[in-house]
Each structure stands twice: as C-alpha cells, then as structure tokens.
Amino acid sequence: MVPSYKNFIAGQWVDAVSHARFENRNPADTRDLVGFFADSSAEDVGRAVRAAAQAFPAWRACPAPLRGEFLYRTGEILKQRKEQIARDMTREMGKILLEARGDVQEAIDMAFWMAGEGRRLYGKTTPSELPNKFNMSVRMPVGVCGIITPWNFPMAIPSWKIFPALICGDTCVLKPATDTPLSAINFIKALEDAGVPPGVVNLITGKGADVGAALVDHDQVQIVSFTGSTATGREVATKCAPSFKKHNLEMGGKNVIMILDDAELNLAVDGAVWGAFGTSGQRCTASSRMVVHKKVYREFLKEFARRARNLSVGNGMKPRTEMGPIINQKQKDSILNWIDIGKKEGATIYLGGRPLEKGNYRHGFFIEPTIFSDVHPQMQIAQEEIFGPVANVLSCSSLEEAIEIANGVRYGLSASIYTRDVNRAFVAVREMYTGIFYVNSPTIGAEIHLPFGGTKNTGNGHREAAEATLDVFSEWKAIYIDYSGRLQRAQIDVGE
What we know:
Elements: E1 7-9, E2 12-14, E3 21-26, E4 29-38, H1 42-61, H2 64-80, H3 82-93, H4 97-117, E5 124-127, E6 133-141, E7 144-148, H5 156-168, E8 171-175, H6 181-193, E9 201-203, H7 208-217, E10 223-227, H8 230-240, E11 246-250, E12 255-259, H9 265-277, E13 287-293, H10 297-309, H11 329-345, E14 348-351, E15 355-356, E16 366-367, E17 370-373, H12 380-383, E18 390-396, H13 399-407, E19 411-412, E20 414-418, H14 422-431, E21 436-439, E22 455-456, E23 474-482
Parallel strand pairs: 7-8, 7-10, 8-9, 10-11, 12-13, 12-20, 13-18, 17-18, 20-21
Antiparallel strand pairs: 1-2, 3-4, 5-6, 6-23, 14-17, 15-16, 19-22
Helix pairs in contact: 1-7, 2-4, 2-5, 2-6, 3-4, 3-6, 4-5, 9-10
C-alpha cells in the first residue's frame, strides 16, 4: 500500500483538479516508493491563492500575540513528531538522519522565536519636530505570500518564510520542491493541527514550471519568497519586476574556508570535512573552496583526503552513514559533468571523482567524496556552484591573497577563516564581502536568531531568520498624530 497525498487548500486536503499524480522515490534506493503526490496546475494555484486572499482580512485582524500562540502550538507539535518527520525527510531527500533531525529542530526553533515576535513586532516612537504632535511607526502585513522552497532543507526553509509571514499577518501558499513534498505536508499538518484557520496556509505540490510559475504570475500574490538557484531566482525577479511585486531571493553560493599557516590544522580539517561533505555538499552554504596557506597546504591536503576517504557513504537511515545520496539522477549527472570540467581545466583529482554504482549503491544516486588539488582561482570549478560533494583546494601565500581569492567570485553567502591570531581574524571579518562569516568554524551552521543571506549574486538584499526577516513580510507605516488643534506645516513651521 503506497500512500497518496493531496493539496491543502482552504483548510481541506483536496486532489489536484486534474487528479494527476507524480511519484516520489527514495534517492538512496529508488525501489522505495515514498508516495504519490498531487501533480497540480495553474488552476490549483488559483484556488489556493483565492483561499489565501479570502482568509487575509480576518488573519490580519487577529492580534499578533494570538497569531503567536498558533505558532507556539505548531512548535510543540513539531517537537512531538520530530523523529517521524526526520525519518520521512531522510527517506525522501537522503540526508543522514542526524542532519534531518537538525532540519526539523530548526523549524521548531523558528516557531518559538517567531511566536515571541507576536508580542514584540516593534515599531518606533520618536519626537516630532513640532509641538503637540506625536510620531510613530508600525508594521503592516503585505498580503498573500507565494512561498517557493528547495529540497535540501525541506522543513527549515519553509519555516524561515512561513512563520514570519504568519506572525506579520500575511497568508501563504507554499510550493515545495517536487523531490520533497512529504516534508512540506508534514509541516503543513503541524500548522493545521495547531488550529491555524482555513486559508491562512495552503500547499500546492507539482512541477516548478507549472505551479511555481503560476504562483509568481498570479496578480493576487503580493510577495514571492524564493530559495533556489541563481538562474531561477533571476527568472522570478524578471517576472516580478513589471508589476513591482515584492520578492526576496535566496540563491547560490561558492563559499570559502581560508586556512592560514597558524591554524589549528586538525580543527580546520574537521571543519572542511563537515563543511564540504555534510548533506553531500548539497547546501547553499557548503564549503566548496579551501584556500590554504602554502606552508601547510600539503599537510592539510593529505589529512583532508584521509578523513574524506574514510567517510561512510550510504543510506542516511543507517546509523553509521556519514554522507547520503545525491537528490536525483539529474543532479548526479550535473555533478559528474562538473568533475569532468575540472579535469579538463587541469585540476588534479586528489580523491574520488567517481560515481558509486555497484553493490549497495546500484539503486541510488551516489558519488564519492571528491577533492581537487592544484586548482586555479579562475577555473570554472572554483567559480561556479557545483552543489555536490566536491571540494577544491587552492593555495595562497598570505592573508591578503587568501581574501582576494575568497572575494573573487560572483557569490557572497558564507565564508570562514581558521587562524589563532585574533587580529588576522578581525581583518578577514572586515574584508570579506559575504552575508555570513565564521572564525574557526566551517561555512555552515547558521542559527535562526541571526540574519541569513548573502551579497552579490546570492540574493537581492533581503535577509531571512531573526527579526531581519520581518522586513520582508511586512511594510512600514509612519503615523503622525497632531493634537495642537491648528495646522502645522512640517519643515516650514520649524523655528517660527
């Protein structure tokens, strides 16, 4: 018995209008059919957007502290269901169970954080320049939010978007990645069981070309929040531009770990292994470049390869597995193509570089942990996001050169440095043009109470998580209350 799942519209679980379905299979073992999911169309999107629009007036009128209570209950439900949700996630997405639990925990943390924002949602009061006049600012909701999320963090990323949208008084239509619809359904079920009113959150599954495009184009969607590739993000921005539709984009990265000659080398290797091969390298924050001082380059490379060689690759459900599969065949082919490009560019495959397709691997999408050495900063593999278990090791002769190489890409998401010199660390903190920076830690591991996002081609200037994300899902309103009983003209009457 293979379960069949539906869309969630106006508080009801309903089939796609066409009754079409698509399969979702385990990337570690494609013989394992996770379920059938609604293969939706623009018509389904229209139904969901209308439901969200109809629910918006009552939801925005609901006091923010009460909206926070719904989120708090959602967090408690996610805590209770954490293990089963994590297992579902590993089964459909492939990341090891330990990481899947962390993904769910991030959603729990965000639920509780944003529940508290229901009693904050601070505006400002400020003195007027005129007598007998009171000035303040408040947040107001935007309206219907189109939420488009990727497969690599199928619960954490929806939580970064939907929870702040709800606390601001917005309503949402979620379009999850086709590779991870079950995690999205588990997320929406928690909101449903927490009592969130019908139409406030809606879920439509299906292909990006059909569902995602229709959501972006719909004239009742006031804001689109997208996480995914830079190429698709550019399409979203282009479609939103003619109508000035609000949009926030979280896109690619080509993140760097700088390892100086005074670094604690074992600690740096720990960070490089985790940063490069955690989630099989399928993170926008993955540590895909290691810029290593030439004095410790060979020593680092040798130990990095030894540790990566010993990683246990396999089904994420097995307790001893340290790196799971690639999400699907298309992504596997793309990664292998990038490995071929690296060879042709003259980089040396120091470790790995091959697909794993025999024995326990024959029914899944697996690639060996791969390390390139002798990489030049301008090589394509050192410039473009590969989104897989491929790490490039480059050499430098100084902190200044390391920073120049690190900044020399079109992305600006995350970076880190390993050094025991606090002065050099602070120079790197100042000079790196990225949205996130770590010292003596890899480029992954963001916490929800700090802003998340990047510069350059990584995003369009917005941030997710923490209070910064409230600026995405709300608009500021300035309010002036004049109780002088006469006409007062700002700027003109000042000083008279």
